[in-house]
């Protein structure tokens, strides 16, 4: 049975430690061969836009842009449909490889056999 980790990031620059932790856990899992799906919701939605992850800084943590690159290379990154709409983020605005999807897709991923979900 394949293992899948679904990580939901609910914080962005407004709560940098929680944000960084979500990206760090997702990138670490992806780098170790676990199938990863990172969901960007709330303020973390902004990191789906080009250049935004490069602007994020938190002492003693890995650069968010590098973590995002690891996840995009071997996993999946999704922005919540409603969160994107509230921020006027469209499909043409996001980094290549990032998708916009809604709650039904999140539920499907988290309920899949072998899936575990974490929310930060």
From TrEMBL:
Source superkingdom: Bacteria
Protein name: Predicted peroxiredoxin
Pfam families named in the record: DsrE (PF02635)
Organism classification: Bacteria, Bacillati, Actinomycetota, Actinomycetes, Micromonosporales
């Amino acid at each position: 049975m394949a293992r899948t980790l679904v990580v939901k990031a609910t914080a962005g620059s407004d709560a940098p430690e929680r944000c960084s932790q979500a990206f760090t856990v997702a990138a670490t899992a992806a780098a170790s061969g676990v199938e990863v799906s990172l969901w960007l919701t709330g303020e973390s939605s902004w990191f789906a836009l080009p250049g935004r992850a490069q602007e994020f800084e938190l002492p003693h943590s890995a650069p968010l842009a590098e973590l995002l690159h690891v996840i995009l290379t071997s996993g999946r990154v999704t922005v919540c449909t409603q969160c994107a709409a509230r921020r006027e983020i469209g499909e043409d605005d996001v980094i290549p490889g990032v998708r916009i999807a809604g709650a039904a897709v999140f539920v499907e991923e988290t309920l899949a056999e072998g899936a575990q979900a974490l929310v930060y």
